[in-house]
Design a protein that fits this description.
Helices cover 44% and strands 12% of the residues. By secondary structure, the chain is of the alpha+beta class. The chain has one domain: Glutaredoxin. β3 (195-197) and β4 form a beta hairpin. The relative contact order is 0.21.
């Protein structure tokens, strides 16, 4: 974890990768990234345990792997991660894909767009839709590329206005936000999915987890976890709470 001292960039222009307010934590992720599934689960559970629900919010931002890699996030690579990453956080919800290959999600862009669109309703709506979409993919084997699956998942949260979300998706009102977040991430300071940023510039890429691939790269070999330090999430959230208190 690196610590920033100044939340503004050169010439007084704030770094677009940082949260806009001290009550939010920016979290760059993709929805079909297993490391991000672990991170988002740990963020939620740690926030709840620390009693910070309703005080600190997660600004989920798009780190679309398919745009960075210019290819589909390959199922063999994703499948190879499940047993390894699932062992770190079993309660996050995991299952090997059970459907036919042609029902596997080919893109996460519509779902990432939906998470951004839900921010127009509230931070809570966006957070809960993001978490529900992760569970729909990882634990339930649903094709989150599909509009009706996204809307069904939104309905299951009980907090998302599904009609408003459908209108936003049909008009593409949040599409530019996904593009802008991809552009910001590609600018050099967002290293991976997940990468967490606090208001003061503190950041952590793949928080607490150090991994490597053996017997080939993603889609050929398999990951090995060399280190896992979940305590980093308490450190991040405690620091975010302190920044919020200082701002008041």
């Amino acid at each position: 974890m690196t610590t920033g001292q100044n939340p503004a960039a050169r010439n007084g222009v704030r770094d677009t990768r940082l949260p806009r307010t001290p009550d939010t934590i920016a979290v760059f992720t993709d929805l079909n990234c297993s490391f991000a599934h672990v991170a988002v689960h740990r963020l939620h559970e740690t926030r709840r345990r620390l009693g910070l629900d309703g005080r600190i919010w997660f600004d989920l931002r798009a780190f679309p792997l398919e745009l960075f890699n210019e290819e589909v996030n390959a199922r063999p690579g994703v499948d190879s991660e499940i047993a390894v990453l699932g062992a770190l956080e079993p309660e996050a919800g995991w299952r090997l894909w059970q459907g036919p290959d042609w029902t596997y999600p080919v893109t996460t862009l519509p779902a990432l767009e939906a998470v951004q669109a839900a921010k127009e309703q509230s931070w809570q709506a966006s957070e809960q839709l993001d978490r529900a979409l992760r569970r729909a993919f990882w634990a339930e084997g649903r094709c989150i590329s599909m509009r009706h699956v996204i809307l069904d998942t939104a309905r299951s949260t009980g907090v998302v206005d599904v009609d408003a979300l459908a209108r936003a998706l049909d008009h593409g009102t949040a599409r530019a936000a996904v593009t802008a977040q991809h552009r910001a991430a590609a600018g050099g300071r967002v290293n991976c999915s997940p990468h967490v940023f606090l208001y003061d510039g503190t950041d952590s890429a793949n928080p607490g987890v150090t991994a490597r691939w053996v017997n080939g790269a993603f889609g050929v070999g398999y990951p090995v976890i060399d280190a896992d330090r979940p305590a980093v999430y308490e450190e991040l959230l405690t620091r975010a709470a302190a920044l919020l208190d200082d701002a008041r």
